[in-house]
Amino acid sequence: MQENAYEYPEPVWQLFRQTPRAGRFAPDSGTVLVGEARTPAADSVLRLELLVEDGAVADARFQAHGCPVSIAVGAWLADHSVGRGRAELDMIRSRQLIDTLEIPEDRAHCAFLGEDALRHALEQWP
């Protein structure tokens, strides 16, 4: 197992190492909402894809380019979105990501990145 040499918080490290739901949906997957956000200063990009069926997220995927915290935020959002409707997802804010993933304040921009990607995806909700 790879050592956590930079001492990332355990929730971040686990999601970074496992990256559940990483990837993209095939073009013919159905109604896929796509949200993308970037932070040019930190050179990070997060793409979140939500497959919506019957008023809820049936499945989700993410792609991230950035530090382990950015990747963990994408993984958490994708995993946490499954089974939820728009109203529940609308309530997710960067503070929840910071608290849940134990993100240090100097990496808070990663949580904002996640919130922005989620907001952009939800703007397309049918």
Describe this structure in words.
With about 130 residues, the chain is α+β, with helices and mostly antiparallel strands. It has a single domain, classed as Sufe protein. Chain: A, CATH 3.90.1010.10. It has 5 helices and 3 strands, in the order αβββαααα. It has a 3-stranded antiparallel sheet. A hairpin with a 2-residue loop joins β2 and β3 (about 55-65). α2 runs parallel beside α5 and α4 crosses α5 (about 110-120). The radius of gyration is 14 Å and the shape is globular. The N and C termini lie far apart (about 40 Å). The model has no long low-confidence stretch (mean pLDDT about 95).
Structure keywords:
126 residues, 22% strand, Sufe protein. Chain: A, alpha+beta, 3-stranded antiparallel beta sheet
What's a concise summary of this model?
This protein is an alpha+beta fold and about 130 residues long. It is about 40% helix and about 20% strand. The protein has five helices and three strands; from the N terminus they run αβββαααα.
